[in-house]
From TrEMBL:
Official protein name in the record: Metabolite/H+ symporter, major facilitator superfamily (MFS)
Localization of this protein: Cell membrane
One GO MF term: symporter activity
Cytoplasm in keyword set: no
Organism in which the protein naturally occurs: Hymenobacter swuensis DY53
Pfam families: Sugar_tr
Main location: membrane
Annotated TM spans: 71-93, 105-124, 130-153, 173-192, 204-223, 256-280, 292-311, 323-343, 349-372, 384-405, 417-436
Domain (Major facilitator superfamily (MFS) profile) ranges: 32-440
Membrane topology: Multi-pass membrane protein
InterPro entries documented for this protein: H+-coupled_symporters, MFS_dom, MFS_sugar_transport-like, MFS_trans_sf, Sugar_transporter_CS
Length: 454
């Protein structure tokens, strides 16, 4: 049975971020970070496979109609799943701050596996009628509750397990595995497209990835059961116990909460547009084949995943704020022309180049937003402080991205959605310009035990 990491297991000297390079990182710390990251990958795979395979299963849960209408109904359920994320952010954030990061992460993956298994076993609309979309919605709400807590707790765990000079690098593993989850979902889709006939995929093949997700959750459960607790959590004085995970205490940090909202607004909208929604966009707007669109998205996401630790490590050297400003300027000015060009291209190669350029810009946010948010809050409310405002913002902006995109297309003004994204990123840019450099003001620097595990 793993033991919690005590302050005695670590050196107590706190070194400012950016000071010195090349410190030895123990195998125990690396094992904790990698185990936490793999569990994160499995949970986000369960979340993203819904969107990746909705092109195949949307007709199974709704009455016959045109493709855009069925996708719009499925996107509506996708958006409703996001409504549970603030509840999950509050619930699991509170558990993480009061009971422990490890316990919260273990519970969330259990809930996610239930949602995936329920989708895999749900009968079609043609078989049970309205019961089918109701069951699909129930499963998605369970997954939304789970993943709503996953971000804040995983972000907290990785930030607290990281060494002070490499916090940006190690915290970037959250988005590395988050993108890796999309790659896994698309990779399984590519395999199934090659081994099954299109009619088989539409009839029953789409259930396979949800079964895989439920099985992978067993692996994630094992990994999380054997995690070390973070030293920052275990070293808290007993006097803070009543304050841990408290909304009353969180209310004492309004600037940090509003900063999380401002950071997340444009970032999550850009992220979901150029990753989750892009497969549908290339099929439904650029009129590529499903196979060609899947290849373009898979290859671009592969490069995108590799960029996350690069941007994270860069932030350890030059700071977080310059990279956020890079994203803000590039996203505000580049989103409309990039999406316009993507909507008119018929070449997979050109689409790959345009999408990759967009994802390089998005990396200025995705590669470092985890550590920026973790640095804003003290230990006793860190998971709640990251998770709740993040989940609320994602629910409003990320969760509605696909729906608004498809609605804009349905009314014949798809370009409205492009300008909406650019405007939201512009608002985030104002936040980036007005915020302090978090490497210099980080609450993580005051954690009682933040350096090297034995």
């Amino acid at each position: 049975m793993p033991t919690a990491v005590s302050p005695a297991d670590l050196t107590t000297a706190a070194t400012p971020a950016g000071a010195g390079r090349g410190e030895r990182v123990s195998p125990r710390r690396l094992r904790a970070i990698l185990s936490g990251s793999v569990g994160n990958l499995v949970e986000w795979y369960d979340w993203y496979v819904f969107s990746s395979f909705s092109l195949y299963f949307s007709a199974s849960f709704f009455p016959a109609g045109d493709t855009t209408a069925q996708l719009l109904q499925t996107a509506g359920i996708f958006a409703l799943g996001f409504l549970m994320r603030p509840i999950g952010g509050w619930m699991f954030g509170r558990i993480a701050d009061k009971v422990g990061r490890k316990q919260s992460m273990t519970l969330s993956v259990l809930l996610m596996s239930l949602g995936s298994l329920l989708i895999a076993l749900t009968p079609t609309y043609q078989t049970v009628g309205i019961v089918a979309p109701v069951m699909l919605l129930t499963a998605r709400l369970l997954q939304g509750l789970s993943v709503g807590g996953e971000y804040g707790v995983s972000a907290t765990y990785l930030a607290e397990m990281a060494t002070s000079r490499r916090r940006g690098f190690y915290s970037s593993f959250l988005y590395l595995t988050l993108i890796g989850a999309q790659l896994l979902a698309l990779g399984i889709q590519l395999v199934l497209q090659r081994v099954l006939e299109p009619t088989q995929l539409l009839a029953w093949g789409w259930r396979i990835p949800f079964v895989i997700g439920a099985l992978l959750s067993v692996v994630a459960l094992y990994l999380r059961h054997n995690l070390d607790e973070t030293a920052a959590f275990t070293a808290q004085p007993e006097t803070t116990e009543d304050q841990r995970g408290s909304l009353r205490v969180l209310a004492r940090h309004p600037r940090a909460v509003l900063t999380v909202v401002g950071l997340t607004m444009g970032g999550t909208l850009a992220f979901y547009t150029f990753t989750t929604y892009m497969l549908k966009f290339l099929v439904n707007t650029a009129h590529m084949t499903r196979e060609a669109a899947t290849n373009v998205c898979f290859l671009s996401l592969l490069v995108f995943a590799a960029l996350q630790p690069v941007f994270g490590a860069l932030s350890d050297r030059i700071g977080r704020r310059p990279l956020l400003i890079f994203f803000g300027v590039g996203g505000a000015l580049g989103t409309v022309p990039l999406l316009t060009a993507l909507s008119h291209t018929t070449s997979p190669l050109v689409a790959f180049g345009l999408l990759l350029l967009a994802l390089v810009i998005v990396s200025g946010y995705s590669g470092i937003n985890v550590i920026v948010k973790a640095e804003l809050f003290p230990t006793e409310i860190r998971a709640l402080g990251i998770g709740l405002p993040h989940a609320l913002t994602v629910a409003v902006f990320g969760g509605t991205a696909e729906y608004l995109a498809l609605w804009s297309k349905g009314v014949g003004h798809e370009a409205y959605f492009y300008w909406y994204i650019a405007g939201c990123i512009g608002i985030s840019l104002l936040v980036f310009l007005g915020m302090a450099e978090t490497t210099k003001t980080s609450h993580l620097n005051t954690d009682p035990a933040a350096e090297q595990l034995d």
